[in-house]
Design the sequence.
């Protein structure tokens, strides 16, 4: 399968006489983890069928220079042969990261929901400038995802001396990262909650559309009213048993299985007040109902 390669460099100034090597490498690992997060969000924002994986091509240590290769693949296994699309994605990712870094330059933290909407608009402009004829995916990008993309490029708060600079180098252009910027999840959550309608302690029957066998990826579920949710299982005891294969055959869920659950629902809205996304944070999986018995519980289910 043909792949799209988006290559760039992450540079940390390093003087062995005064800088801590272990701390610098720890900071570098955090930076790489963040870039992987941001690249994945941007790739999906520019095209829903593309996923991102970053690889290390080389590392130099006069300063610490990590050469990144961000590999993009089509998730439905079709080959990416369109040279115009390849050029668009390469440029859009470079310019998308630049737009996020520009925001970090001008701020010390994420201040308000309007900032995230402005960044989202800039990403739409990036896509249009790079040649996209379709910005539907970006229009559907949530403020939460924009915040997480910014957070992925934010500087680590541990490991580096104050004099050590972090620089992103792409297409010959260097962008020094503002090390005064701080991404704080609690602050961001407070901002997002103010733009969201939240229903606490909701008990519902939900039908599984897509589940996650590892990690903390969100599940895709639907309730009896036909509302779709990006769900996160916070019932860690149940989740660990599921992901480790420790549930009985009767308790083990599959797509189309129905779960009786309790949790908090968040409804995100745009600046006109229209609903954009629904999230279900499930802290109690109460019962598992096998797919062949689901119809009696989901009489209102409205299909895929």
Sequence:
């Amino acid at each position: 399968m043909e792949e799209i390669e988006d290559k760039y460099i992450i540079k940390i100034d390093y003087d062995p006489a005064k800088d801590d090597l272990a701390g610098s490498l720890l900071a570098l690992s955090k930076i790489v983890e963040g870039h992987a997060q941001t690249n994945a969000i941007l790739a999906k924002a520019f095209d829903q069928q593309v996923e991102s994986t970053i690889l290390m091509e080389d590392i130099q240590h006069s300063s610490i220079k990590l050469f990144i290769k961000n590999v993009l693949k089509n998730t439905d296994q079709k080959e990416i042969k369109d040279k115009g699309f390849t050029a668009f994605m390469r440029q859009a990712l470079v310019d998308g990261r630049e737009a996020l870094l520009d925001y970090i330059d001008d701020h010390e933290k994420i201040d308000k929901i309007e900032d995230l909407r402005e960044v989202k608009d800039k990403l739409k402009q990036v896509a249009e400038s790079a040649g996209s004829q379709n910005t539907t995916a970006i229009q559907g990008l949530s403020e939460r995802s924009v915040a997480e993309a910014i957070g992925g490029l934010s500087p680590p708060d541990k490991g580096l001396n104050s004099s050590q600079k972090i620089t992103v180098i792409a297409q010959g252009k260097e962008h020094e990262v503002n090390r005064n910027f701080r991404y704080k999840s609690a602050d961001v959550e407070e901002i997002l909650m103010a733009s969201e309608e939240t229903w606490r302690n909701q008990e519902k029957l939900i039908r599984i559309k897509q589940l996650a066998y590892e990690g903390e990826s969100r599940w895709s579920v639907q309730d009896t009213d036909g509302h779709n949710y990006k769900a996160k299982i916070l019932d860690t005891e149940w989740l660990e048993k599921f992901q480790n294969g420790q549930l009985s055959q009767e308790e083990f869920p599959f797509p189309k299985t129905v779960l009786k659950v309790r949790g908090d629902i968040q409804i995100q809205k745009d600046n006109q007040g229209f609903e954009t996304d629904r999230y279900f944070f499930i802290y109690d999986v109460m019962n598992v109902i096998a797919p062949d018995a689901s119809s009696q519980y989901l009489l209102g289910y409205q299909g895929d």
Observations:
- DSSP finds seven helices and ten strands in the chain.
- The beta strands are 4-12, 50-60, 64-74, 166-170, 173-176, 196-210, 219-223, 228-233, 258-269, 275-289.
- Residues 91 and 148 are 21 Å apart (CA to CA).
